[in-house]
Amino acid sequence: MVNTIVTAASDRKEPRPRRDVRTIVGEAPPPTATIDRLETELGWEFIQIYGLTETSSMLTLNRRRAEWDALTPFERARRLGHAGPPAIGTRLGLAPNGEVLARGNTVFSGYWRQPEATAQALAGGWFHTGDGGCIDERGYVTISDRKKGRDHLRW
User: Which of 47, 55, 84, 155 is 20 to 30 A from 14 via CA?
Assistant: First the structure.
C-alpha cells in the first residue's frame, strides 16, 4: 500500500510535499527504499507499530527521533523499518528460542472460556507472541519470523 502511494505520488507532474501527513504501518514494514521515498519525496512521517489481537495495536511504536537527524535519509529509513521500542506501559523480552514476549497494561488477561490456551499464552507471567525476533541494546525490537501456527500451515 505504501509503495503504491509513493509511486502514484511520484507520477504527478508537480509533486506537492506535505509535512503534516503521518503514515502508520502495523504489519510488516515496507522496504527501506519505500520508507525513504515516502519521507524524502512526499515529506510524510513514517511510523511503524507492532501489536497483536491479544495486545494493544501498539506494543511498540517506532518513529523518527531527533538523534537520527545527522543520519542519511536512507539510514533513518532503515531504522524506521524495525518494530521499535516498547510503548508506554509495555515490557518486552525474549524467550530462549527467540520468541518475543510481552507484559504490561497492553496485554490481555486471557482467552474467553479457554483456560488451557490462556495458561499457555501467559506462561511464566509473559504473553508469548508467537513471533520470533531480537531486541538490540537500545531496546528496539526487530520481528524476523512467525513461530506460532507453523504446524497448521499447509502449502
Answer: 47
Domains along the chain with CATH numbers: 2-149 (3.40.50.12780)
Q: Report pLDDT digits (tens) over 123-143.
A: 999 999 999 999 999 999 999
The pLDDT tens digits of the residues spanning 37-58 come to 999 988 899 999 999 999 999 9
Residues contacting 109, CB < 8 A, separation 6+ = none
CA distance 83 to 145: 13
Q: What is the mean pLDDT of residues 21-32?
A: 91
Q: Which amino acid is at 114?
A: Q
Counted residue by residue, the chain has a size of 155
Q: Please say whether the beta carbons of 30 and 3 come within 8 A.
A: yes
